[in-house]
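[Automated response] Your request has been received and processed.

Submitted sequence:
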Amino acid sequence: MNLILHLLLDAAVIFGLAYLMPQVDVKNFGTALLIAVLLGLLNFFIGWIIRFPLNLVTFFLLTGIIRIIVTAILLKLIDSFLDSFTIVGFWPALVIALAVAVAGMLIDRSAPTEERVQSGYEALMIR
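Generated structure:
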């Protein structure tokens, strides 16, 4: 369930920023959803290969910043694959990557953890 929520929110962020930023063009929400799925798959399969050497160079002190930069690079890679998605320049890709990271952080913070569910805290919050 959390994965579906992440994908939908990432697609909404990408689609919303495409509406606000003239350098980004997304044809429709379905394309934004495809971009979110591709971004998740590329981050899973290729992202760690790019992040690991960069984290070694920085002694793992800049892990969050490197994750955002790698996500922006992957967005530019997706831009080269899809005709219905265009990003002009690296800075708009970096802004989208930052927004996706912030949205993901907000989802992860609001999701109930196993400890909270077992303690009954979530049950009290629902009532």
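Summary generated for your ticket: Helices lie at 2-20, 29-57, 63-81, 90-110, 114-119, 121-126. The longest helix spans residues 29-57.
If you did not submit this request, please reply to this message.
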